[in-house]
Amino acid sequence: MQTKERVVITGLGAVTPLGTGMEKFWDNLISGKSGITNITKFDASGLPVQIAGEVTDFNPVGYMEKKQAREMEVFMQYGFAAADEAMKDAGLFMDGLGNYPVPKSRIGIVFGTVFGGIGATEEAAERLKDGSRVNPRVITKIIGNVGAAQIAIAKHLAGPSLTVSTACSSGLDAITVGNMLIESNMADIVICVGAEAATCPVTIEGLSAIHALSHRNDEPETASRPFDLDRDGFVMSEGSGAVIIEKLSVAKARGAKVHAELAGCSNGTDGFHVTSPHPDGIGAIATMEGALKAAGLEVKDIDYINAHGTSTPKGDVIEVKAIKTLFGEYAGKVAVSSTKASMGHLMGAGGVVETIACVKAVEEDIIPPTINQFTADPECDIDTVPNEARRTTVNVAMCNAFGFGGQNASVIVKKFAE
Fold this sequence. Notes:
- By secondary structure, the chain is of the alpha/beta class.
- The protein is 32% helix and 19% strand.
- It contains 13 helices and 15 strands.
- Strands 1, 2, 5, 6, 7, 8, 9, 10, 11, 14 and 15 form an 11-stranded mixed beta sheet that branches. It has a two-stranded antiparallel ribbon with strand order 3-4.
- A hairpin with a 3-residue loop joins strand 14 and strand 15 (407-414).
- The radius of gyration is 20 Å and the shape is globular.
């Protein structure tokens, strides 16, 4: 039987409410800062929720031509910028003849997004209501797959290009699908991107109507409180993350720096309810177990879990229950933090950005904290790494993402060793 080739992570890129660029994002995350503020990008005064995680330091022309920027919806711009940073980090450049280290047909893209160009949709609807004509670029700003297409066009790539939309699991599933492309030998290198810019009146109103969002309008920085007794919902955020994954043999051949090994991926569904997770966390348990099996690891091998941990009253308890069921007596020994406390819920971008946090944790042996831990919830009685980052050995980290429709995804990364 042929041995499965190892897959490694060689490039990282981030556009987040904690900062644009990997250095700013990571420094602010482990410093315990919050990226949640009052909404400034539109008038939210008439909305029930007026807070979000906004990207405030992003200038698209720093990453693309003005013409390209005009053609892209904001989520595409974020995804493009994160992919650009990740490709540079990975040393994935064309030579003077326009060639990459592998044929262009062997470099793929998988792009995860939940809402795609919903902002452009809402804007077009408003223009029609006012009797105006829509922007001629509106369709290519709305369609989710154009995020990947814009990267492929600008970077002259010709490999597989796929767009994943699996609710809040979209980012992690982009990595899983990228891994599948490599394992099936359809690609040697894959750019995995998650991107979202969906904070707009329709999403705020819709999510508020189903009691999913925090209403702490007067306390934006402390509104996201995963695992805290007084949590009251999640905070919408925007941004992007990108990781470059590739065959180890390819990375070695081109002398790439390896950040971490992509050890295992898994996806599953609850088959239970369109918005509520299964009360016993059966899908989450099966998916975490699947990632462990794919990685050839046991629960005792996991040093850190970056939880889905959205700060909803029911969701956090169910995730803790799932971890305790699967990990048994070891559940009290594994560190479990939610970085959504610091930057809110990046929706389709969340899984990739949170995987990046896991990669940095195993690289630097630092676990990012769950900030805003004020009152312990007896139903969330695990080690949530409260309020301050922790320096400790992190050999293996797991990232979880769960979404509407019963979507579950889990990815495991570990320290790279020859």
